[in-house]
Amino acid sequence: RLHVGHVTTGRDISNAFPSPKHSKLDQMVEGVRARGVVKALLKKRYRQTTMMVKTPTGGKVIVRPHCGGLQGDGSMAPMFSAMYDPMIEEWVQVKRDNPSTNLLDGADPITGEVVNMGTTLFADDINEINIVNSAESFSAVISHNNQVLDDILGRAGMGQNADKAEHSPSLVTGGPRGGRPAVAETQKLRGGMEGVVGSQVKKSMRYLGNWTSADGSTRVNTQKRKERMAINFEALGGFWGNKKVRLRIKIIVYRGLVYNAALSGLEAEVTMSQGEWEELESMHMQYLRKVVGDAAVTVGEDGIRYRWSHEAVRQLTGIPTMQS
Fold it and tell me: What span, in angstroms and rounded, lies between the C-alpha atoms of 163 and 154?
């Protein structure tokens, strides 16, 4: 929107939770301010993990992994973050020290500290914005960033899942005020360059449940959410009109399957226009009326069927507006 050339890159770490070396986790645990017995228990949690594996012949084998921890282990999430976050901070600092890299930095309004706004992290997934104006400059920057991240992750026995990387370019020419799309430069990226696989260059990409477009528009995000609502609602077909199913059950299913699908990940959304919110709300109310059916209709003395207002339907179901 500021007409500054940039490329948004989504990165995925391969088998993140099961991969870290136990020695790297040990190093993290030793840095925790806790009594020795607590540290010993934390180490025991992942060092004595066991799994039962079925063999092709029907037998069972007990396996003890020598790296990482179990994906569903509640204690592994905070331990993984405590080990992983400093690695990403190191990566960002190395990028900052590279003279060919232009980071999207800003000053914290309270502390005045320089904060990198172009790198976001959720669990092991990384979203990165690089300020560039040509395919060649992005190729050089992304190749450097890949190498540095691979080196840092490699020390912990981890690595990127290169097949899942995605790039959404918004390259411009003409400067920040009169900028216009640099179509030729984008086509170079789609053709493939060093550090860039052409098939991974997208017009839009998904991160944390949100679809982001290269031009900064949220339109694609709204459309994808509507598609998800339609697919989930239609998947149950006649369930919604089945009079043998209690309305309370239908409402619970609708909230979990359709309503929540429309809102999933919006806490990470920067902005949506009022018109886009109204599109989601209109579709939501259309489906919600199909769910409640005759329960939201009153037959008058004149025999005419009167539909309840939207607000009355919301009160009946307990489901608020999309923006609530």
Answer: 17
